[in-house]
Fold Anti-sigma regulatory factor (Ser/Thr protein kinase).
Amino acid sequence: MRHSTEITLPRTLDAARRARRFTNEACVSWRVPRLAQDAAIIATELVENTLRHTCTAPRLRLTLRRNELTITVTDDDPNQVMLRENARPPGFGLLLVAQTSRQWGCERVPAGGKTVWATLR
């Protein structure tokens, strides 16, 4: 069975909180509460990264398929994200995503911009 949901978040101070709530509610609704905490961490970090490094509103999408949850955040900025191994706050968000997720990556969007994604099982 496949579930999918998406939200475009405003560029406001409460965007990360809204991303966490949206992610938690989806995990509960889809009966995968064991993924909720890690999914919320990933969604929050990816949304905050978009807000910090781009001028666009983040589009958060959650997809559950065969017990694998994919979290994606898309923005209109074509610059690829970079993982900084020796990062210090506030620069260790992607390191946290890499450590929390099963796998993660970044892909360019044909219309412009990029999508950063991470998966959980």
About this structure: The mean pLDDT is 92. The domain at 2-120 is CATH 3.30.565.10 (Heat Shock Protein 90).
